[in-house]
Amino acid sequence: MASIKLAYLGGGSSRAAGTMASFIHHGAEFEGSEVVLIDQRPDELEVVRTLAEKMARNEGVDLKVTATTDQRAGLEGVDAVLTSFRPGDFAMRLQDELIPMRHGVIGQETQGPGGFMMSLRSIQVFQGLIADLDAVAPGARIFNYTNPVNIVSQAVEDHTDTPIWSMCEGPMTFWQPILETAGLDPARAEVIMAGVNHNCWSTTHTYDGEDLMPLLEQGWEKVRDDLTVPVWERRMLHLAVAMQSIPADYFKYYYFGEEFFREQQANRLTRAGVILSHVDDYWAHYREQAASDRPRLDPERSRGGIHELELAIDVMSAFYNDAPARLPVNLRNTGGALPGFDEDTVVEMWCDVDGSGVHPIEQRPLPHAVRGITQQLAEYQRLAAIAAWDGSRADAVRALAAHPFVPTLAVAEELYDDLAHANAAYLPDRLLR
């Protein structure tokens, strides 16, 4: 099995304990490896390191776990870097959600102006990371989970030679609740989704080998007026039937935007507010377990559960162990693997992963009914990557104006300036002028 040195950037985050539990669950695939936890928070790093060390020992996994706040030192000689971090933490995510709402625009973590600001913050960190890798681990590969993964990957692909593969479970999970709402068994279906991250659609959808769409239509007729079925479950089934393609959950913000915005305004807390109300309990649980001889993470008290970032670990295992697996990956659309998108655009698609790399399976084009909005989001992705890497305020405004959430140039300009002011501590001067 593969023995690698892996740096985990974000190793002191609230997701890190669950990520290490996931890595240890796959421990037999990485016998003799070392994981270096890297973060700016020494106390949280030590909690995660202690948890991971004890869990590995109790599971009989040969894994060395170290921790450091010195990024360059932690990256020395690594084979791989797992990136999952949130510059500005949940406090800035809260602003990403609240500030757009003041301008009449949906505030969301990865979509629209909120996601754009997260990309600006994240890519500043990636520039420092890549400079450090060039100095101390030039052959390392990045396995990325930092959002928005598509914009991060686009910027790194466009401006560096550092290999990066980004992951998200969406293509594996978006479609299952829609089938369940229609009264169908996901285990009997084959659904292949593609597009850009968080904005993919089904290009193959069968049930017991037959076209799935007639069955979804029948399911929709049964639940369309059934108020016992939650409203957003009905909305997403309706969208799948209307577009004749199963959507990523995030398309509710685009096709039912006014309804979602009104609901967002009416809520006492945004999503970030809800998470912030639980963060202290996450860390109380982690500290309790770190103090025990046999730590056990409770999924209800762990951020994201106890098998976090498992898709990235699956991709790592398939690659470093040359153990072929079919998995969804975000990568450059080399050779036009996904028809309808430029070859240098980062797209999300199912791939065969083995020791030689990641290879897209044969892709069907997106249906015309949904291709246009996805292409628009791909073009916004490219503009956002330009602004984040070395662009100016003008580049940032152009990117925002290209996003479907933003109705006018005036809103793009005013909203960007408001967001940039709130993010001043995380942005370079070129984006503040």
Automatic annotation (TrEMBL):
Reply yes or no: does the keyword Plastid apply. Answer: no
A single GO BP = carbohydrate metabolic process
Highest taxon listed in the record's lineage: Bacteria
Free-text cofactor note = Binds 1 NAD(+) per subunit.
Residues flagged as site, Increases basicity of active site Tyr: E109
Residues involved in Mn(2+) binding: C168, H198
**UniProt keyword terms in alphabetical order:** Cobalt, Glycosidase, Hydrolase, Iron, Manganese, Metal-binding, NAD, Nickel
UniProt cross-references to Pfam families, sorted A to Z: Glyco_hydro_4, Glyco_hydro_4C
Show the GO MF annotations. hydrolase activity, hydrolyzing O-glycosyl compounds; metal ion binding; oxidoreductase activity, acting on the CH-OH group of donors, NAD or NADP as acceptor
Q: Name the residues that bind substrate.
A: R93, N147
Which InterPro entries does the record cross-reference, listed alphabetically?
A: Glyco_hydro_4, Glyco_hydro_4_C, Lactate_DH/Glyco_Ohase_4_C, NAD(P)-bd_dom_sf
Establish whether keyword Metal-binding is in the entry.
yes
The Glycosyl hydrolase family 4 C-terminal domain extends over 193-406
Q: Kindly list the cofactors needed.
A: NAD(+)
Q: Which family does it belong to?
A: Belongs to the glycosyl hydrolase 4 family.
Name of this chain's protein: 6-phospho-beta-glucosidase
